[in-house]
Amino acid sequence: MPANIDTILAAARRHCEEEILPNIDAWNKGRAWPRASSDKAAALGLTGLYAPEELGGQGLSLGDGIRVYEELGRGDGAYAFALSMHNICTYAACGFGTDAFKEAWARDLTSGRKLANFALTEPQSGSDPGTMYSRAVINDDGTWTISGAKAWVSLAGEADIYFTVVKTTDAPGHKDMAMIAIPKEAEGLSFGPLYDTPSYRFLPMSEMYMENVTVSEDNIILPVGRGLQGSLMAIDIARVSIASGCCGLMQAALDSALAYAQNRKMFGGVNLDLDGIQWMLGEVATDLEASRLLYRAAANALGTDEGPLLAAHAKRFVPDAAVKAANTCTQVMGGMGLLAPYGMDRLSRLAQMLRIVDGTTEISRVVIGRALQKRAKTLPAPVIPKGYGEV
Ligand SMILES: Cc1cc2nc3c(=O)[nH]c(=O)nc-3n(C[C@H](O)[C@H](O)[C@H](O)COP(=O)(O)OP(=O)(O)OC[C@H]3O[C@@H](n4cnc5c(N)ncnc54)[C@H](O)[C@@H]3O)c2cc1C
Fold first, then answer.
1. What's the pLDDT score for residue 61?
2. Regions of the chain with pLDDT less than 70
3. What is the pLDDT of residue 229?
4. Same domain, 256 and 195
5. Of the candidates 226, 245, 261, which is a domain's last residue?
6. What CATH number is attached to the domain comprising 122?
7. Closest by Cα among 344, 184, 322 to 261
8. What share of the chain is helix, strand, coil (3-state, %, to 5)?
9. Is there a domain that residue 313 lies in?
């Protein structure tokens, strides 16, 4: 039987309160992935959310499981993001991996004993994966030999396996793309220096280099021709997961501002008595409600024809709303909002990061724009009254 979603959400809430919030500043100072904490998340069932029970997962639907990141995002959006990527890779492994791969890896991934991440971006190709260089040569014995470089690899050096998108010919386009899982120990795999980021410093990120890395055909997750399409499906799930995490971030910002404003004395009352302050926070509250409805509708639509467009709407709207929420709540707190102990600056930086990762806001606009063009084609041409010119 699938896990009970309310039990899982309560566990994620506890993990946020007991593990993330008390430790986040120390994690950022330490600049190391908090593996002991992610092990605790794993023990709560948060690393195999959508994987089937027979492989050790929780068997949740995407619509239910994605709500976990709202709970984790109240603590830290980058931590929620990293676990969401692990869960997406685990879902892909259990759904599309070969039997041999599942036998070797599925239970380690669902239990969180091993962590996974996704490597698509390259130094020269972010929004436009069509310009990817990484190449796999398919050998006579069926093994694949991969060379190239990936960029912005999260959990770099920390994850135990990297679900890597590669091309298999020199032909332009994406028809020859595939996804293959490369274990950390594979000979020829190495990582560049860690990126120096202004926040989320505990999330190791770097380039990943593949120099004649040879991997068994058992590790093919998406065969030749399905690499880009499959990655886009994964990115749809990732986009909605980001929107879920952003809702947690907005709730955290709002609660900090409310707690402060109801205690800050001014003009014979408190800050929260001022209409202007209530209106500012009221807008954040409306944006949060709208964001929740949108990401949950998008999560429930994943896997249907409406999924990609709703995921784009969620990724377009919610991170922008989170940036606005973090900035508005900082403003409500006046100078205090700028001080590190309140963590508002961290939330602003996280919100901006969440606008970029897993497909930028602009790329979501491109997806929405294309859907609008498609719809426009179904509409009759407008009838222009005589004398009003032509369309
Ligand atoms: C914290 C973090 C973690 C990440 N982790 C991973 C990871 O684990 N694995 C992975 O593969 N990648 C990862 N990424 C990479 C991320 O997915 C890319 O940063 C993202 O896809 C954007 O690519 P880019 O940074 O190269 O920007 P570019 O593609 O160079 O875009 C630059 C700007 O141009 C805009 N733009 C692009 N196309 C259009 C258009 N058609 N119209 C209008 N504007 C456009 C973009 O929106 C952006 O503002 C991570 C990124 C971050 C910030």
1. 97
2. none
3. 86
4. no
5. 226
6. 2.40.110.10
7. 344
8. 55, 15, 30
9. yes
Domain count, the chain: 3
Pocket lining: 368 vs ligand 1, CB cutoff 6 Å: no
Question: Same domain, yes or no, for 99 and 40?
Answer: yes
* Cα–Cα nearest to 12, from 50, 51, 45: 45
pLDDT at residue number 145: 98
Say if strands 205-215 and 220-222 run parallel, antiparallel, or are unpaired. Answer: unpaired
Burial 273-293 (b: 16+ CB within 10 A, else e): eeeebeebbeebbebbeebbe
My answer on whether 121 and 111 are in the same domain is no
Residue 233 shares a structural domain with residue 121: no
Instruction: State residue 26's pLDDT score.
Output: 97
Q: Which protein residue has the closest C-alpha to ligand 1 atom 42?
A: 362
Q: How far is the CA of 29 from the centre of ligand 1 (A)?
A: 26
* pLDDT for position 125: 93
> Which of 128, 246, 356, 367 should be mutated for ligand 1, with most atoms under 8 A from CB?
356
Ligand 1 centroid, distance to 317 Cα (angstroms): 17
Nearest to 31 by CA among 204, 154, 205, 193: 204
Alpha helices in the chain (DSSP H): 5-15, 24-30, 35-43, 62-65, 68-73, 77-96, 99-101, 107-110, 227-261, 275-301, 307-332, 344-356, 361-377
Expressed in angstroms, the distance from the first to the final Cα of the chain is: 58
Q: What is the pLDDT of residue 388?
A: 87
The size of the chain, in residues, is 391
Nearest alpha carbon, ligand 1 atom 13: 152
Which pLDDT score, from 0 to 100, does residue 234 have?
A: 95
How far apart are the C-alpha atoms of 78 and 197, rounded to whole Å? Answer: 12
* Residue for token pair 């993001």: 81
CA distances from 388 to 376, 382, 384 (A): 22, 12, 6
- Identify whether residues 169 and 88 lie together within a single domain: no
3-class DSSP state for residue 67? coil
pLDDT at 172: 87
| Residue appearing with tokens 């929740």 | 292
Q: Residue 63 sits in a domain of what CATH number? A: 1.10.540.10
Whether ligand 1 lies within 6 angstroms of the CB of 134 is answered as: no
Distances (CA, A) of 382 to 305, 376, 386: 28, 11, 12
In this prediction the pTM is: 0.97
